[in-house]
Amino acid sequence: MSSNTNTKLTSVKIIDRNYYEFKKVTLETDLTLQKFVNRSIDLFLKDSDFKDKVQQHETGGVKNSKY
Q1: pLDDT digit string (tens) for 8-25?
Q2: Which of 4, 47, 51, 63 is least surrounded by Cβ atoms within 10 Å, i.e. has the fewest?
Q3: Residue 1's beta-bridge partner residues?
Q4: Are 60 and 67 in contact (CB under 8 A)?
Q5: Is 28 exposed, middle or buried (0-12, 13-18, 19+ CB in 10 A)?
């Protein structure tokens, strides 16, 4: 990411097992958590099917949890 790109530094809590699985799956790729989050947000804003899928997804079996 270039230094003149507008960015927002934030802190988020991620479910441990999901984070470690993500790291394992992406270990030999150039996909970082930062790239994943930025791409996911972009898709969420531009793709209504993706947005619906994310909003309906249950994380850890708990629908509408804070995670």
Answers
A1: 999 998 888 999 999 999
A2: 4
A3: none
A4: yes
A5: exposed
